Amino acid sequence: MVELLAPAGNFISLASALKNGADAVYIGLEESNMRINASNFSVEDIGEASRMCRDYNAKLYVCANTIMKDRDIKRLEKQLPLIKQNGADGIILSDIALIDMVIENGLEAHMSVQENTTNSYALKALEKLGVKRAILSRELSLDEIKKMVSRLKADGSKIQTEVFIHGAMCMAISGRCFLSYGLYGRSANCGDCLQPCRKEWTLHFEESGKDDVINLAESKDESFIISQAYDNTYRTNFFSPKDMALIEHIPELIDAGIDSFKIEGRARSPDYVATAVRVYRQAIDRYELDRENYEYDPKWMEELEKVFNRGFDTGFYFDVPYETSESNQSRYVKKDIGKVVNYYNRIKVAELKIWDDLRLGDEIMIQGPTTGSITHVIDSMQIDGKAIEKAEKGSNVAIAIDEKLRESDFVYKLVPRE
C-alpha cells in the first residue's frame, strides 16, 4: 500500500499528522533543512518525535537537504549517530556526499527533490550509491512517472519513488531558486527563502516600435496573466503558482506504482496538516478497499479549501500549471478566542476560558502539542451547570466534546472569510 507522508514543523503539527492517519512524517533538522523559518526540531527533539511516531506505527524522516559546505557536513556527521540513536528512520538529503555517511549510521538515505531526478537512469545510479528512495522532480508528468516506474520494475530495481501530491509549488526547477538570494541575500537553497515570487510584480516595457505586448488575461490559453494597470504598466503574479492538489486523481497515482505520496507544508499550520492528511487518508483507503467501485467525494476538496491555500492546480502531472496566486484563498479565518482550562474525562466535557463570544453552532478549532488539531461544532454549552446558547467573552464555559483536550490548548473560532 502506498505510504502517506505528512509534514510537521512542530509538535502540534506532528500530533495532527499522526492522529489523522499519516504513515510517516518528515521533520526539519535545525540549521540543515529547507524550511529554516519553521520551528524545526533539535537532535534531542527527534527522540520525542520518534516515540510519538512509534505509538502510531509511523515512520520518521529527518530533512537535512540544504546546500552543504564543509562546516555543515562536519556538524551533521556528529549529529547522525544521535539521530539514529533517537529513533529516526531516514534522512532526506540533497548532497550525494552524505549518502555513505547516512547509511553507515544505519539510516535510510532518501534523495531530496532538490536533486531534480527526472529519469530512470538517474534512479538506477542513485540505487547503486545506496539510496533507498528518491523524491521525483515536480516537473514530471504522470505519464512520464508511470513509464519510469515501469522500467525500474522490469529491470528488478528496488529503489522507492516518492512524489508531491499536495501543497505549495515553486516557480524554480525542483525548488532550486536564486531569486531570494539575489534580491535579499537570503538563500532559498539554504532554507531561508523570503518568497519574493509571491509578490505582485510590475513589468515595464521599453517601446521600440517593434514590440507587440499582448494582454494574455483575455486569452483562454494563458500560461500566466499579465494585466495592464492604470499607469500603463503591466502587472503579474506569474512567478507564483497556485498550490498543488491531486485529491481528484488518487486512483491514477496509485496505479502508477509510486511508493510514497508526500504532502508539502512544514511551514504551514497544524490545521492544514490535519485536514490534508485526513482527506488524503480517506481517499487512499477508499480506493484500496474497493478499486472497482471507488467514487470521488466532492466534500474532500471542500475540506481542503477551508485551510490555507492559494487556490488549486494539478502542477505538471497533466499539463503545464497555468494559474497563479499570491494570497491565501481558504474559506475560513482562524480567530483566537480562548484556551482550555480543564478537561473532565469521565463526562467528556472541556472547560474553556474565552475572550470572545461563543454560540451554539459555532465551529471551533483546538490545537496543542499532544492534542494536535481538532475541529468541533458547538452543540452543548453550560455555565454554572445551566445550559446556554451564547457565552459572553470573559466567561469560563463548559462544552461537551468527545476528543480529549489538554490544559492550555489553544482555541480558535472559524469565521467565514468575507
What does this structure look like?
The chain has 418 residues and is an alpha/beta fold. It folds into 3 domains: 3-171 and 241-313, TIM Barrel (Alpha-Beta Barrel), CATH 3.20.20.70; 179-236, no CATH class; 332-416, Beta Barrel (Elongation Factor Tu (Ef-tu), domain 3), CATH 2.40.30.10. It starts with a strand and ends with a strand. Helices cover 26% and strands 25% of the residues. It is globular. The chain has helices spanning 11-19, 43-55, 70-85, 98-104, 120-128, 142-154, 179-184, 250-255, 270-289, 299-306, and strands spanning 3-8, 24-28, 59-64, 90-93, 108-111, 133-135, 160-167, 201-203, 227-228, 234-236, 243-245, 260-263, 312-313, 332-344, 349-354, 358-359, 363-368, 372-377, 381-383, 386-387, 390-391, 396-400, 410-416. Strands 1-2-3-4-5-6-7-12 form an 8-stranded parallel beta barrel, surrounded by 5 helices.
